[in-house]
Amino acid sequence: MDSHDAPESTPRQSAPSRHKDYFIGATPLQKRLESARKLTSFVPTPSRRKIPQCPQLQEDVEPQKVAFLLHKQWTLYSLTPMYKFSYTNLKEYSKLLSAFITAEKQKGLAVEVGEDFNIKVTFSALLGMKGTQRDPEAFLVQILSKSQLPSENREGKVLWSGWFCCVFGDSLLETVSEDFTCLPLFLAHGAVANTAIIGTWFQKTFDCSFSPLAINAFNLSWMAAMWTACKMDDYVATTEFLWSVPCSPQSLDISYAIHPEDAKALWDSVHKTPGEVTQEEVDLFMDCLYSHFYRHFKIHLSATRLVRVSTSVASAHTDGKIKILCHKYLIGVLAYLTELAIFQLE
Amino acid sequence: MDETVAEFIKRTLLKIPMTEMMTILKAWDFLSENQLQTVNFRSRKECLAQDLVLLCEENRISLNDAALLDMIYTQFHRHQKVWDVFQMAKQPGEDVDLSDMEQFKSSFKKILQRALKNVTVTFRDAEETAVWIRIAWGTQYKKPNQYKPVYVVYYSQTPYAFISSSQLKSNIPLLGQALTVASKHHQIMKMDLRSRYLDSLKTIVFKQYNQTFETHNSTASLQERRLGLDINVDPRIIHENRVEKDRVQRVTREIFGDYVQPRLEFAQYKLETKFKSDLNKGILAEREEPLRCLVKFSSPHLLEALKSLAPAGIADAPLSPLLTCIPSKGMNYFKIKDK
Amino acid sequence: MTSHCCKDAVRGDGEDVGGTGLEGIKSLLVGTEDALLQQLADSMLKEDCASMLKVHLAQSLPLPSNVNRPRIDLIVFVVNLHSKYSLRNVEESLRHVDATFFLGKVGFLATGAGRDSHCSVHRNTVLKLAQTYRSPLLFCDLEVEGLRATMAQRLVRMLQICAGHVPGVSAPSHPHTHSYRAPGLYPSDEFHLHLRLHLNKGSVAKNSLKITGLIHHVDSADELTQNN
User: Fold this and answer.
1) Per residue in A10-39, pLDDT tens?
2) C120 contacts A306? CB cut-off 8 A
3) Which value does ipTM take for this structure?
4) Which domain holds residue A225?
5) Is the CB of A302 less than 8 angstroms away from the CB of C189?
């Protein structure tokens, strides 16, 4: 099978304090060798992961406060460490970003075409969105429309939200000096134009860079297995997979939904190691789904591309989109995503 | 002229793309050549629509005329609707009655009008003894909603009718009844077949496979594929699996035929079957209950996509009968259970 | 470890003596990605080579024809990282390869690494596979014409060495004689392919030198360096 005892990642030497410099200064040969090294070296990837449990740091995670994070589709990005970011300056950042957006709007890079309203930007800390105490605090940025009429609510409609977090980011935190704040996972919801403007401001202000975080089929399978493994009191959504078949000239999508109780029964039958999910179990779980499908349709799903996975815990799309449905496992989902983000930063 | 009728005509005109405007107006044949010549077709659509509405008023347009325009638009854009297929049956022993079309139409209209005081029914004859019917539903107290009509395409020499899928489902039983009685049938049944492509549905149901349908660059792709299938003439490349490849091509051709397939967008399977695997024998071995699954295949041209799977190595040949029976059984909704 | 099947679905020479030149060089590409294999074969044949090169394409092993088993100089197993099915197919096929082939006449080619978002097979899996079978692993996105052409050049060169057509160079003969780095002992920064340089044809030469080559993602001309 695919079991490989890949060695656990050895502590790296501290990376240069400015990630960017390394790549800018590199010669073409160095860059080529760097990418070559990546391809042919074993990449530390866990062959086993812990099944998400209820978060340990429960005191700060109030369901109401984080309810707005759930049932929303977030677009994922990885973010390099931010230079000289300070949690005490959040109010100032709000003002600066607000001014920046207004200036961009006037330049013609409109936030919303045709609409003319005042906007307000807020920065707020998101308590409890972390794995260990070492993880930096998560924070949220929102663009709100300021209501014109005084009679209406002060807080206008939320036009755009984005939040930065780091859950169990030890492997990255170790490599970075004090001047940097590591929040490698960025989630955005709202117009892409807004995300671009906000991204530009952060990049200019904190010397960091965003990259869209895609999720490949390999990781989607892991997510499917882990989330199916989570103990649920009741299921709010069916377990569903979506494959894109690389046939031409016509495209073909295959959606395969399975009753969540049946998916759980299948998983329980595959699962051997308590508390953990292993590579073999993920492979076997997927193989069972493939073989059940093959028995009926004589199509090899394993030759096609898994693009979307949906469970009662969360749903994820290969384009880097996530929707978290279950408050209980929010931290667990974020932990996996943080891992993917950190991996992409390397 | 009623304001609502004027608004209805205007909204219908605004739906029509400029490139089709002349064609559709001519097909409608309500405004004369002379009248059309007085209109500036280069003006902005809003203005054009206004001008045309004024002309319609001159001709004392009725609601039915306006409904006819809407119907013609829909005939040109039939893919915008999703069509369900219904099959009627006669009493066993009854002969096929070559019923009078006019009688059918008047009977159909009467039945609906008797049941709902307010309903707009419009007919337009089409090719091959088919008739298009447009129905705008009202209630005993409300006027018909012209913006949510249902369309029926009935082939009078056959027991089949195609009905556009609509959100107002409550009137479907009445519609079915009207169809059945007016066409002198005994009962009506909804088939598990649905698609946007009316002509493809027709060919599946009437088993006319060898025609050209709503092709989607398919002639080009057919040629491409033929070139791809040409065995590489370079003698220095030896295909070890030549025999198997030929078998796959042959079997695929036998199942799907050489012609372009009827166009469907999806096939859906509700599965309730036990998990059984040769390789993973222990898994779910004790479980009596089946796995409840819903599988949906979607594609701009489903049957063509399925046809390409085995030659591409993604599926076995022959493909599963669950997939290959779609045209022959005239179904794209299935419920599969263990025997 | 390698399952040493006694089936020899493909006939191979145990000794590292090349062909006589009259039979030509034969390579076998095994993989489920029919179109890619065809394109790669075309690219290989475009390469200007003195000897007669023949490329056999097979979906899997064992080969269907039992009658005329060709003498193969190099088998390349092609795995598409976007398709788990292609990996399984290669794993199955490997079981039908005669043990002698793994003394230098087998190579692995992984395609699709460039588009990580499409990958369902992890790189480590193919790396481990190649290491298990003590055979070189090459990465190349076969869909990209430039990369494919360069890879074709490399494969033809490898073929010539394996068939003994390059004077003074022959394929590695036995794993023990290499200083192969076992995974885990050293941080594996590079994947080494050792070729033994024979000064004259014979199984063990007195002045054998080791060549270190860096097998990496091909995006430029051949960088297999020779230290003389």
Assistant:
1) 333 333 333 333 334 445 555 555 555 566
2) yes
3) 0.83
4) 215-318
5) no
